[in-house]
Amino acid sequence: RSEAKIEIIIAKNVYGDLIIAESRGAQNINSYTQRDRGRPKRDAFVGMLPPKLAQIMINLSGAKPNDYLWDPFCGTGTVLQEAVLIGVNAYGSDLSDKMISYTTENMNWVEKTFSTNTFWQAHQADANSVKLTSEQKERISRIVCETYLGQPFSAPPSPEKLHEVVGNCNHIISDFLQNIHSQIRPDTTLCIAVPAWQNREGKFTHLPLIKNLKKLEYQQIIDKNLLYYREDQVVAREILVLKPADIAKTA
Hints:
CATH class: Alpha Beta
Number of domains: 1
Protein backbone atom coordinates (compact mmCIF):
# COMPACT_ATOMS: atom_id res chain seq x y z
CA ARG A 1 0.00 0.00 0.00
CA SER A 2 1.17 3.49 -0.80
CA GLU A 3 2.44 5.61 2.09
CA ALA A 4 1.26 8.74 0.27
CA LYS A 5 -2.21 9.47 1.61
CA ILE A 6 -4.49 12.46 1.39
CA GLU A 7 -7.52 13.45 3.44
CA ILE A 8 -10.60 14.51 1.48
CA ILE A 9 -13.34 16.47 3.24
CA ILE A 10 -16.83 16.49 1.72
CA ALA A 11 -19.40 18.81 3.26
CA LYS A 12 -22.60 20.64 2.41
CA ASN A 13 -23.28 24.17 3.58
CA VAL A 14 -26.60 25.62 4.72
CA TYR A 15 -27.36 26.72 1.15
CA GLY A 16 -27.06 23.18 -0.18
CA ASP A 17 -23.71 23.73 -1.93
CA LEU A 18 -21.42 20.70 -1.99
CA ILE A 19 -17.88 21.48 -0.87
CA ILE A 20 -14.96 19.14 -1.54
CA ALA A 21 -11.63 20.00 0.04
CA GLU A 22 -8.23 18.44 0.56
CA SER A 23 -6.53 18.71 3.95
CA ARG A 24 -3.01 20.03 3.34
CA GLY A 25 -1.80 20.20 6.91
CA ALA A 26 -2.71 20.32 10.58
CA GLN A 27 -1.47 22.48 13.42
CA ASN A 28 1.10 20.96 15.70
CA ILE A 29 -0.46 21.42 19.14
CA ASN A 30 2.62 20.12 20.94
CA SER A 31 4.84 22.64 19.19
CA TYR A 32 2.52 25.53 20.07
CA THR A 33 2.47 24.39 23.70
CA GLN A 34 6.25 24.14 23.78
CA ARG A 35 6.64 27.65 22.32
CA ASP A 36 4.17 29.02 24.85
CA ARG A 37 4.27 27.22 28.19
CA GLY A 38 7.63 25.56 27.59
CA ARG A 39 9.61 28.79 27.38
CA PRO A 40 11.87 29.79 30.26
CA LYS A 41 10.05 33.07 30.95
CA ARG A 42 6.34 33.93 31.03
CA ASP A 43 4.49 36.79 32.70
CA ALA A 44 0.71 36.71 33.09
CA PHE A 45 0.66 40.26 34.48
CA VAL A 46 1.75 41.87 31.20
CA GLY A 47 -0.42 39.54 29.12
CA MET A 48 0.49 36.43 27.21
CA LEU A 49 0.14 36.77 23.46
CA PRO A 50 -0.60 33.28 22.08
CA PRO A 51 2.02 32.09 19.55
CA LYS A 52 -0.79 31.28 17.10
CA LEU A 53 -2.08 34.86 17.22
CA ALA A 54 1.47 36.17 16.80
CA GLN A 55 1.75 33.99 13.68
CA ILE A 56 -1.55 35.34 12.34
CA MET A 57 -0.45 38.93 12.88
CA ILE A 58 2.91 38.37 11.20
CA ASN A 59 1.08 36.86 8.23
CA LEU A 60 -1.37 39.79 8.10
CA SER A 61 1.58 42.19 8.01
CA GLY A 62 2.79 40.48 4.85
CA ALA A 63 6.23 39.74 6.30
CA LYS A 64 8.37 37.42 4.20
CA PRO A 65 11.67 35.63 4.93
CA ASN A 66 14.57 38.11 5.10
CA ASP A 67 12.26 41.07 5.82
CA TYR A 68 12.89 43.10 8.98
CA LEU A 69 10.11 43.35 11.56
CA TRP A 70 9.88 45.44 14.72
CA ASP A 71 7.83 44.80 17.87
CA PRO A 72 7.95 47.98 20.02
CA PHE A 73 6.00 46.30 22.87
CA CYS A 74 7.90 43.01 22.78
CA GLY A 75 7.09 41.78 26.31
CA THR A 76 8.39 38.22 26.59
CA GLY A 77 9.31 38.05 22.90
CA THR A 78 6.49 36.01 21.35
CA VAL A 79 6.34 38.02 18.10
CA LEU A 80 10.12 37.92 17.74
CA GLN A 81 10.09 34.18 18.38
CA GLU A 82 7.47 33.44 15.72
CA ALA A 83 9.16 35.79 13.25
CA VAL A 84 12.62 34.22 13.40
CA LEU A 85 11.14 30.72 13.11
CA ILE A 86 9.94 31.62 9.59
CA GLY A 87 13.12 33.48 8.63
CA VAL A 88 11.93 37.03 9.34
CA ASN A 89 14.57 39.22 11.01
CA ALA A 90 13.25 40.85 14.17
CA TYR A 91 13.89 43.88 16.33
CA GLY A 92 12.20 44.13 19.71
CA SER A 93 11.94 46.91 22.25
CA ASP A 94 10.03 47.43 25.49
CA LEU A 95 9.73 50.03 28.21
CA SER A 96 10.63 47.44 30.86
CA ASP A 97 14.19 46.23 31.37
CA LYS A 98 12.67 43.11 32.93
CA MET A 99 10.80 42.32 29.71
CA ILE A 100 13.97 42.76 27.66
CA SER A 101 15.67 40.30 30.00
CA TYR A 102 12.78 37.86 29.52
CA THR A 103 12.82 38.31 25.74
CA THR A 104 16.56 37.71 25.61
CA GLU A 105 16.34 34.53 27.67
CA ASN A 106 13.40 33.24 25.63
CA MET A 107 15.07 34.03 22.31
CA ASN A 108 18.28 32.30 23.37
CA TRP A 109 16.11 29.28 24.19
CA VAL A 110 14.41 29.47 20.77
CA GLU A 111 17.78 29.54 19.01
CA LYS A 112 18.97 26.49 20.91
CA THR A 113 15.70 24.52 20.79
CA PHE A 114 14.78 25.15 17.16
CA SER A 115 18.29 25.60 15.69
CA THR A 116 17.59 28.99 14.15
CA ASN A 117 20.17 31.69 13.52
CA THR A 118 17.87 34.34 12.05
CA PHE A 119 18.81 37.87 13.16
CA TRP A 120 17.10 39.34 16.20
CA GLN A 121 17.89 42.16 18.58
CA ALA A 122 16.14 43.48 21.70
CA HIS A 123 16.70 46.67 23.69
CA GLN A 124 14.95 48.85 26.25
CA ALA A 125 12.96 51.77 24.83
CA ASP A 126 9.69 53.61 25.39
CA ALA A 127 7.46 53.11 22.33
CA ASN A 128 6.11 56.65 22.76
CA SER A 129 9.52 58.30 22.51
CA VAL A 130 11.83 55.73 20.89
CA LYS A 131 14.13 56.97 18.13
CA LEU A 132 15.02 54.45 15.47
CA THR A 133 18.58 54.27 14.20
CA SER A 134 19.33 55.03 10.55
CA GLU A 135 19.86 51.32 9.95
CA GLN A 136 16.53 50.41 11.55
CA LYS A 137 14.67 53.07 9.54
CA GLU A 138 16.10 51.63 6.35
CA ARG A 139 15.52 47.97 7.23
CA ILE A 140 12.16 47.78 9.01
CA SER A 141 9.19 47.24 6.70
CA ARG A 142 6.79 45.55 9.14
CA ILE A 143 5.63 46.49 12.63
CA VAL A 144 3.82 43.76 14.56
CA CYS A 145 2.90 44.19 18.20
CA GLU A 146 0.40 43.84 21.00
CA THR A 147 0.09 47.37 22.33
CA TYR A 148 -0.93 48.41 25.83
CA LEU A 149 -4.18 46.58 26.71
CA GLY A 150 -4.83 48.42 29.95
CA GLN A 151 -6.11 47.03 33.21
CA PRO A 152 -7.32 43.40 33.15
CA PHE A 153 -10.92 42.75 34.22
CA SER A 154 -12.67 39.58 35.34
CA ALA A 155 -16.06 41.28 34.98
CA PRO A 156 -17.23 44.28 32.93
CA PRO A 157 -16.21 47.51 34.72
CA SER A 158 -18.50 50.38 35.65
CA PRO A 159 -19.12 53.00 32.93
CA GLU A 160 -16.92 55.45 34.82
CA LYS A 161 -14.04 52.99 35.13
CA LEU A 162 -14.38 51.94 31.48
CA HIS A 163 -14.26 55.58 30.37
CA GLU A 164 -11.05 56.07 32.35
CA VAL A 165 -9.35 52.94 30.98
CA VAL A 166 -10.41 53.59 27.38
CA GLY A 167 -9.08 57.14 27.58
CA ASN A 168 -5.76 56.01 29.03
CA CYS A 169 -5.21 53.29 26.40
CA ASN A 170 -6.32 55.60 23.59
CA HIS A 171 -3.82 58.25 24.69
CA ILE A 172 -0.87 55.85 24.96
CA ILE A 173 -1.50 54.11 21.63
CA SER A 174 -2.17 57.40 19.78
CA ASP A 175 1.11 58.82 21.09
CA PHE A 176 2.92 55.68 19.92
CA LEU A 177 1.50 55.93 16.39
CA GLN A 178 2.35 59.62 16.21
CA ASN A 179 5.90 59.05 17.44
CA ILE A 180 6.81 56.43 14.84
CA HIS A 181 4.98 57.96 11.85
CA SER A 182 7.82 60.22 10.75
CA GLN A 183 10.44 57.54 11.37
CA ILE A 184 9.09 54.55 9.44
CA ARG A 185 9.31 53.80 5.75
CA PRO A 186 6.26 54.99 3.75
CA ASP A 187 5.65 51.40 2.60
CA THR A 188 5.63 49.98 6.14
CA THR A 189 2.73 47.73 7.09
CA LEU A 190 1.62 47.69 10.73
CA CYS A 191 -0.37 44.89 12.33
CA ILE A 192 -1.16 45.88 15.90
CA ALA A 193 -3.38 44.45 18.62
CA VAL A 194 -5.31 47.05 20.62
CA PRO A 195 -7.89 46.55 23.38
CA ALA A 196 -11.67 46.35 22.95
CA TRP A 197 -13.97 45.86 25.92
CA GLN A 198 -16.93 43.45 25.96
CA ASN A 199 -19.99 44.17 28.10
CA ARG A 200 -22.48 41.70 29.54
CA GLU A 201 -24.60 41.85 26.39
CA GLY A 202 -21.66 40.86 24.19
CA LYS A 203 -21.25 44.34 22.67
CA PHE A 204 -17.82 45.94 22.36
CA THR A 205 -16.41 49.36 23.17
CA HIS A 206 -13.64 50.25 20.69
CA LEU A 207 -10.80 52.75 20.94
CA PRO A 208 -11.80 56.21 19.66
CA LEU A 209 -8.57 56.41 17.65
CA ILE A 210 -9.89 53.79 15.20
CA LYS A 211 -12.37 56.36 13.86
CA ASN A 212 -9.69 59.05 13.84
CA LEU A 213 -6.89 57.26 12.02
CA LYS A 214 -6.78 59.92 9.29
CA LYS A 215 -5.87 62.53 11.90
CA LEU A 216 -3.02 60.26 12.95
CA GLU A 217 -2.06 59.90 9.24
CA TYR A 218 -2.80 56.20 8.99
CA GLN A 219 -5.30 54.18 7.01
CA GLN A 220 -6.76 50.74 7.68
CA ILE A 221 -5.88 48.16 5.04
CA ILE A 222 -8.38 45.62 6.37
CA ASP A 223 -11.53 47.58 7.18
CA LYS A 224 -13.20 44.98 9.38
CA ASN A 225 -13.57 44.31 13.10
CA LEU A 226 -10.97 41.59 13.68
CA LEU A 227 -11.54 40.56 17.30
CA TYR A 228 -9.67 37.82 19.16
CA TYR A 229 -11.24 36.80 22.47
CA ARG A 230 -12.77 34.06 24.58
CA GLU A 231 -16.52 34.12 25.07
CA ASP A 232 -16.20 35.19 28.71
CA GLN A 233 -13.30 37.60 28.17
CA VAL A 234 -13.82 41.29 29.00
CA VAL A 235 -10.69 42.71 27.35
CA ALA A 236 -10.46 41.46 23.78
CA ARG A 237 -7.70 42.04 21.27
CA GLU A 238 -8.73 44.01 18.21
CA ILE A 239 -6.36 43.54 15.28
CA LEU A 240 -5.65 46.59 13.10
CA VAL A 241 -3.73 46.40 9.82
CA LEU A 242 -2.48 49.87 8.88
CA LYS A 243 -0.25 51.81 6.52
CA PRO A 244 0.86 55.44 6.65
CA ALA A 245 -1.99 57.40 5.02
CA ASP A 246 0.08 59.02 2.26
CA ILE A 247 1.11 55.66 0.77
CA ALA A 248 -2.28 54.05 1.44
CA LYS A 249 -4.00 56.67 -0.73
CA THR A 250 -2.03 55.61 -3.78
CA ALA A 251 -1.89 51.87 -3.06
